[in-house]
């Protein structure tokens, strides 16, 4: 993979790109508890047949930014322009899924396909039926944040997003957990500038997403994420839903081979 930099108003976006071939390129957008390193297994796997890229959003990884409002859609477009990508398949996890969806609605001509992984969806109804397990882990996180204990807050966010709140803390171990704690730890210590949402949120516009779409969600993910994923797959006219067993909010990081196989099947059908 080759590092790259893209200068935009208020920030220098940093990422990696590689691969070659005639197949549609892939652009990966990371979750709000990760950075571009979360996609390493996907970048390596898919670079065998196509161009691939990933970048750190403002406030994450090695991207620097001023504390001014910005448009994630404009940042994605700037990266695509700098990389010479007229069209690409966007793959977004969590908040990266939100931004991929917003970009698709703003620039449908630039998106050949859309893969949403445990996506956030702008404008989704407020979720209220929280299980006790989620409320318990959330309360622990609030207490750690109030105490200014960022190390413990990082561990609790790993429990919430990597393990899944209905599972024991530390379910996911080894290099994956170490990487999560480093990625999210950096983000906790480098607050992101405020992202400006689109004028009309994505939730009531899902039927306008006409490109082939795949929605992937872990069965251990939070209930509002599973609900939003199911709704998005139902409303987008050319979408399919795949539920990955035994994984939480970061299936591409936690189970890369299983995730890559699903993405391979989707890409072969484009």
UniProtKB/TrEMBL annotation:
Q: InterPro entries from the entry?
A: AB_hydrolase_1, AB_hydrolase_fold, Epox_hydrolase-like
- The AB hydrolase-1 domain sits at 26-261
Q: Name one GO molecular function term.
A: catalytic activity
Write down the PANTHER family for this protein, in alphabetical order: ALPHA_BETA-HYDROLASES SUPERFAMILY PROTEIN (PTHR43689:SF8), HYDROLASE (PTHR43689)
Q: What is this protein called?
A: AB hydrolase-1 domain-containing protein
Organism from which the protein derives: Deinococcus ficus
